TrEMBL record:
It comes from Durusdinium trenchii. This is C3H1-type domain-containing protein. Residues 161-178 have a biased composition (Basic and acidic residues). InterPro entries: Nucleotide-bd_a/b_plait_sf (IPR012677), RBD_domain_sf (IPR035979), U2AF_small (IPR009145), Znf_CCCH (IPR000571). The lineage of its organism: Eukaryota, Sar, Alveolata, Dinophyceae, Suessiales. Residues 161-190 are annotated as: Disordered. A zinc finger (C3H1-type) spans 114-141. CDD domains: RRM_U2AF35_like. Residues 114-141 form the C3H1-type domain. Keywords: Metal-binding, Repeat, Zinc, Zinc-finger.
Length: 205
């Protein structure tokens, strides 16, 4: 078992996203179409997967990622990391036999637990010389506003996740021999979400 699932080849790359990943000539309109498709996919899939359990919500690097690689074993791969192994197990069971965009979802456990360590640093810091066929993760960019939106909606839809204590999570990690990461308490997350909602209301005025 694992906290992390791999959904193989789930993201249906558009011609625009394939061209961008392959470093072909592009313009702003092409980029906008590719990004709009990606963001719509991200929101839909995140909120669906959140129905099975609490997805880790470290805001600057939410633990749902879509890769930009084009090699055969990585193209379209999606990874999701839950706080609890039993939630990952539930998601695996619920996704088995389901289809997305006309294709059977291929879900399995993966040993990848830290996407920051698995990513290609050259791609995210400068430029990867291997291009889209690199074997380290080239993670597609999701704007912070989208990440904030989905984590807020996850807790709005599932307020019971906010009731899970840090002691429970630390115990689960301790059983696996992991050091608990420094992160927000439930109260801090409630305050953060309330702040976001206040900002949203300000934008709408």
């Amino acid at each position: 078992m694992s906290q992390t699932l791999l959904l193989s080849h789930m993201y249906p790359n558009t011609p625009e996203s394939l061209a961008l990943a392959n470093d072909e000539p592009w313009d702003d309109d092409m980029y906008d179409r590719a990004q709009a498709h990606l963001e719509a996919f991200y929101v839909e899939v995140f909120l669906e997967l959140a129905n099975y359990g609490e997805i880790e919500d470290q805001i600057w690097h939410l633990d749902l990622v879509v890769v930009d690689n084009l090699c055969d074993h990585m193209i379209g791969n999606v990874y999701v990391k839950y706080y609890h192994e039993e939630d990952a197990e539930r998601a695996l069971m619920k996704l088995t036999g389901r289809f997305y965009s006309g294709k059977l979802i291929q879900a399995e456990y993966t040993t990848v637990s830290d996407f920051r360590e698995a990513r290609c640093r050259a791609f995210h810091e400068t430029r990867c010389n291997r291009g889209a066929y690199c074997n380290f993760m080239h993670i597609k960019h999701i704007p912070r506003a989208i990440k904030r939106r989905v984590v807020r909606e996850m807790y709005d839809d599932h307020p019971e996740y906010l009731g899970q204590t840090e002691k429970d999570r630390d115990r689960d990690r301790g059983e696996r021999g992991e050091a608990p990461p420094a992160r927000q308490t439930s109260e801090e997350r409630r305050a953060m979400i309330a702040s976001w909602n206040a900002e949203k209301e300000t934008w709408l005025e």
